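Slide 14.
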Amino acid sequence: MQDRTSHIWLTGPTRAARQAAAAGLSPAAAVECHRGLRGPYTGAGELMRLLVPAAHGRGAPPTAGTRLSVLAAAPELGGLLGAAEATLTSAAPPGERTRWYARERTRRIANGLVDFLAAHPGDPLTLVLHDVHEADATDTEFLDIALRRLDARRVRLVLCGPEDAPLPAHLSARLDGRAEHRAAPPVAAPPAVTGEQFVRTDGTGGADDAYRLLDDAERAKLHDVRAEELEASPVRAWRLGALPHHRAHGSSPETAPAAFEAAVEHCLGMGYYTAALELNERMAALLGPDAPWPVRYRQLRQRGLCLALLDRPAEAEAAYYDVLSRTTDPKVHTTVSYALSVLFTRLYDTSRKDHLRALAHINTAIAFIEQLPDAEDRAFHTAFMHNGKALVAMHLGDLAGALDLVATAMAAVDDGLPADRHLLHKSVLHHNRAQLLARLGRGGEALEEYDRIVAVDPHHPEYRFDRAVLHHQQGRFEAALADYAEVEAISPPFVELHYNRGDLYVQTGEGDAAAEFARALELEPGRADARLALAELWLDDDRAADAAELAAEGLSLAPDDPLLHSVHGTALLALDSAASALHSFDRALTLDPALAGAHANRACAHLALGDHEAALDDLTTALERSPDDPGLFHNRGYVHEDAGRWEAAVADYARALELPGADREELAERLAACRSRLAGTDR
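Slide 15: predicted structure.
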């Protein structure tokens, strides 16, 4: 019987050796991950194409947000599962796309795919994935999460690659911790690959010796034939990998830049930004130095956008200045000046942010608008650029001014654009207005805006999530729960939903808050807020050992988190490990001396170890930071009492009783006891 206690990292000297060793593991599915085949989700998408129909036939199809993850990786399954519901973002024409997905979207998709695998019915599965060293970032992210979350006894992953495979650091580290390394034994060399076979495997299936011996015309014809096959395939993902490759090497290479550009646009629209940048760079190499300006501009614009969306603002800035240096076209200067403004007000880290420079760039963009010849173009850019200026104003702290700028943008849309154009951007403006109204404390008006945009874009999860947060903040808990439930149904799984719902359950005392925080940590173990919240619930539930283990796991991920050190100390204190708890509190307060709670709890550790003076020092420090906390006066009174300082204890207990929220019955009892001891001392 095979050992299934861990995943496997299978390396070998040749592809044939790895394939033979993997086949000996009796896999339920074996797929290729080389991004040159189908680009993003080459491996994960093929797994879904193989496994989902079988699960569907057994009455266990992916549901809710998991279904949307499957459709993102393998949209062809829409015929079986129903196509993903359109949003204004997904349905926007190319020229009207003004909103891009956050980078976290692919993590959400990956978690949904793992949810599907984890819930599969039937016998345990072994899944083989070849050429992971050539996988797209979406696949390596999926594999990283799958290795962490999947129990190898139910779903065992076998990742295959050369012995010296260059893997992304995050995946290599995960393999070290979660996979057994096995070396495939050598096998007899397979027959040499012919030139035709090399082309039909899209350049990923062996040595290219025979291919290079073909004459140019024969080689180009083979690429043409393969390109036509892929054009006709129902699997559209071929257009993101192999198809542009074959067009570049076919008999009409001048058509290749358009194929690459279309692939980049698709990847940008889906949030696959690493793939988009790589494809864009290959397109740039094909264009050469003499490319017509419109084509070159689109390539450069795509490059800058990819870099910005990948959170590489310094490189994006250089790319944008490159564009500005090449043209005096006012429309280009308007668009690129806006992009530079966003870099400085939102994308750069704190040390490089410069809101005044951002304001200068957005003012430059606005100054160029009147030079645009088309009235509708002017109306759109007036709306877009004033919305961008509102972002800068908000970051400068001028919320009222930002709201006025959004109003200017909305007026430009209403007055200058047809009712059926730029629907996405209109919804973005209303969303921004809702956010600003909420920040200004105008919750009723903000809610009206959210109701409006949810009505016109009901399947976009961000709008419902933000409306749920507003309901939550204003105490409309049932409405918040309804929106959170809807978000769960229309989005791949994401951590903020479960953390917020857990927080709501804590406030209301209803629902399973611990399950929500645990689910948040299942999706993203690095979420310290969910870890802290769950640990505190477990401490309240007399599960100190579990809370200590949970905090220790968090500290392995974030060793310098003072709150995690503090809750770890609290759990150890509950386990009667005062000395170890003291060490944790010391570390917490070294990292953040302002943690009043850590001071208060360290006082308990000091008291348990018999050090009254240190305990009093900590409680006095805590009271300097929280002077109206009755619990701190109560605790300091107890330390005084334990040290026999009855007068000081009486003073602290009496002060605690004057404050709201005090434990009046306990305090009255302690106060009476100390006064009695004090009276006895006087006699």
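Speaker note: The two ends are 83 Å apart (CA to CA).
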